[in-house]
Amino acid sequence: MEKVAILAPPAFAPTGQVLSKTQAIKAQVWLGVFHLWIVQRQPVPALIYQQRSPNSSWGPLLLDVTVGGYYLAGEHRLDGLREVKEELGIHYNPKTLTYLGRKLFFGRDQQDLMRYTVVDIHLVEDNRRLDQFVLDPQEVHALCLCPIDYLIKMHTRHKPFSAPTISNSGHKTIIKVTPDLIPYNWDNYHFKIALLARRFLRGENNLIY
User: Fold this and answer.
1) Deepest in the core among 108, 138, 185, 200, taking most CB within 10 A?
2) How far is CA 134 from CA 47, 87, 89, 142, 168, in A?
3) Rounded to whole angstroms, how far apart are CA atoms 150 and 177?
4) What are the backbone dihedrals phi and psi of residue 207, each rounded to the nearest 5 degrees, phi first?
5) Reduced to 3 states, what is the DSSP secondary structure of residue 128?
6) What stretch of H or E contains 116?
7) According to CATH, what is the number of the domain 3-201?
8) All structural domains of the chain with their residue ranges
9) CB 209 within 8 A of CB 188
């Protein structure tokens, strides 16, 4: 059974209390989460979004961060790369990641429980094709390639766009990306990530969320 560490404000450091992930979610306490956004330069500047499993307890079938997951008890920030290997079959050198900082997220899941998470946000550039990732069918329903310019227009003008997608079975299709497919975040998280990804590809430094 997976165990997670409970965090406490204001610094959101571990309290020393450890619960199973299920117990912690039901207790509605603060937990640490790893996020990794895969950014592509070619063929066009884009972000790879993950389409969540239809069986997910939070945001089923919505488009969300490329890889995300709870830290297990005792894990530190870059230990979250374990999730990337599990979900996409890819191992990244920690030195290739760009760290953007932390954010707070709170939202209601499918069981009507509030989830409170402290999210470490990272970017990495990876230009491989979608069909070169090995998707875990238990975790990832599909990957979707979203051009950054289209994402920004969607967030600013509510303009939908079409994006190539590959499922965990290898089926390729085109889906219509609309604001309703993006999970609500109180801090405009997805819009900010699109802007930061564009700056990242331009070679800018000191990227802070």
Assistant:
1) 200
2) 17, 8, 5, 10, 8
3) 10
4) -80, 115
5) coil
6) strand 114-125
7) 3.90.79.10
8) 3-201
9) no
Could you read off the pLDDT of 3-28 as tens digits, one per residue?
999 999 999 999 999 999 999 999 99
pTM of the model: 0.97
Tokens read off for 157: 């003008």
Distances (CA, A) of 145 to 39, 101, 133, 178, 192: 10, 24, 13, 14, 17
List the one residue out of 135, 140, 21, 139 whose CA is nearest residue 75.
21
pLDDT in tens, 114-149: 999 999 999 999 999 999 999 999 999 999 999 999
Place of tokens 């329903």: 141
Tokens of 196: 């930061």
* Inter-residue contact 134 to 158 (CB < 8 Å): no
